[in-house]
Amino acid sequence: MHDDVARAIVRIGCVLGSSAGREEKAAEVLTAIRTVVPFAAGSISRAQLDDEDHVSVVNLGYPDAVQHHLNTWFVRNDAAFLRLADPNTKPGRWQDLPFKYEDTYTAKQVLMPAGFSNGVTVRMFTKNDRYTGSLHVSTVEKDQPVDSTRELWSALSRMLSGLVDPLAESLEELRKHPDDRNAVLVTPSMKVVGIPGTAAGPLLHQGSEVITEILRGVWPSAPRSFWWPSAHGDFHRVTVSPGRDHLLVSERPATPPYGLSRREMEVLSLVATGRTNIQIANSLQISPKTVAKHVENLMSKMDATCRTEIAVQATRSELLIAPAA
């Protein structure tokens, strides 16, 4: 490996390990690449969970129309890009490909008219070979990038995967809930997306009551938890954590605190919404006297002195059944 390439890789490693934001890191990565490849344009884009189109993280030099092409038609149809779907295929320059890239649609209709004569596309993969995004570098000179940069592209294929990984923050959040057995992601288009290596379980699937109940409310801006009674009479603790462009929903079987029964949990959730005993009785189809007895039991179990206190405790401790009860 040439010394300049090695230095660039070390610099990029330092950038990725810094506390800077994703966009700033991506820009610094391109700046480091430019020390060994005098590119005219470079960009880094991330894959999306529910759409083949990519989203630009940083773009240095590509005209808007070219970058749009690289994020849309290119990722769906370009022969060089599709060839890289195999993580074991090494990224190559135009002349390294097993076909004449100058004759492809992207080269003839997009890149060459914009003044580019060569370049490299790198697809990023995690250690588990999950695709996360792409790097594009285009040069004006036909003899750039030079042969000595080949090892750089192969290294970046793995190094940059975490920078653009759409699952990165959700996987990190999931580690905060080690007891949660099942988890999925929900995108803004309301699509449920599985997480590699994590089961969805019977409650978290497209169209399930839990997912429907979550989407029935306002898209949350902060983490929230609630309790879900299963058809078998037990409870599941559901946690909803907002990500950059999706929700992480995880759940696990759990026992409510204070020894609360299912009916008491139902009454408590309705008390916390400000409903009267008569309103709660109508909702649960029980008598007001029965509701009053449940409220009395709740106050005793929760060591509270009044109805307002159990409502405040329920809200603060997230003891509510469903997010929009």
Task: Tell me about this structure.
There is one protein chain. With 325 residues, the chain is of the alpha+beta class. It has three domains: 3-164, 2-Layer Sandwich (Beta-Lactamase), CATH 3.30.450.40; 167-255, Beta-Lactamase (2-Layer Sandwich), CATH 3.30.450; 259-325, Orthogonal Bundle (Arc Repressor Mutant, subunit A). The chain has 14 helices and nine strands. The protein has helices at 3-16, 22-34, 64-71, 73-77, 79-83, 105-111, 150-159, 161-164, 168-174, 209-216, 262-272, 277-284, 288-301, 307-316; strands spanning 41-46, 55-60, 118-125, 131-139, 182-186, 192-194, 224-229, 235-242, 247-254. Helix 11 (262-272) packs across helix 14 (307-316).
List the helices and strands and how they pair.
Elements: H1 3-16, H2 22-34, E1 41-46, E2 55-60, H3 64-71, H4 73-77, H5 79-83, H6 105-111, E3 118-125, E4 131-139, H7 150-159, H8 161-164, H9 168-174, E5 182-186, E6 192-194, H10 209-216, E7 224-229, E8 235-242, E9 247-254, H11 262-272, H12 277-284, H13 288-301, H14 307-316
Antiparallel strand pairs: 1-2, 1-4, 3-4, 5-6, 5-9, 7-8, 8-9
Helix pairs in contact: 1-2, 1-7, 11-13, 11-14, 12-13
Q: What is the correct CATH architecture of the largest domain?
A: 2-Layer Sandwich
CATH fold annotation of the largest domain: Beta-Lactamase
Write the element-wise H/E pattern from the N-terminal end onward: HHEEHHHHEEHHHEEHEEEHHHH
Radius of gyration: 27 Å
* Number of distinct helices: 14
Q: In the CATH hierarchy, what is the class of the largest domain?
A: Alpha Beta
Q: What number of structural domains do the residues give?
A: 3
Main sheet specs: 5 strands, antiparallel
Query: What is the overall shape?
Result: elongated
Count of β-strands: 9
Q: Approximately what portion of the residues adopt beta-strand conformation?
A: 15-25%
The largest sheet has its strands arranged as 6-5-9-8-7
* Share in helix: 25-40%
Distance between the termini: 61 Å
Mean pLDDT: 90
Structural class: alpha+beta
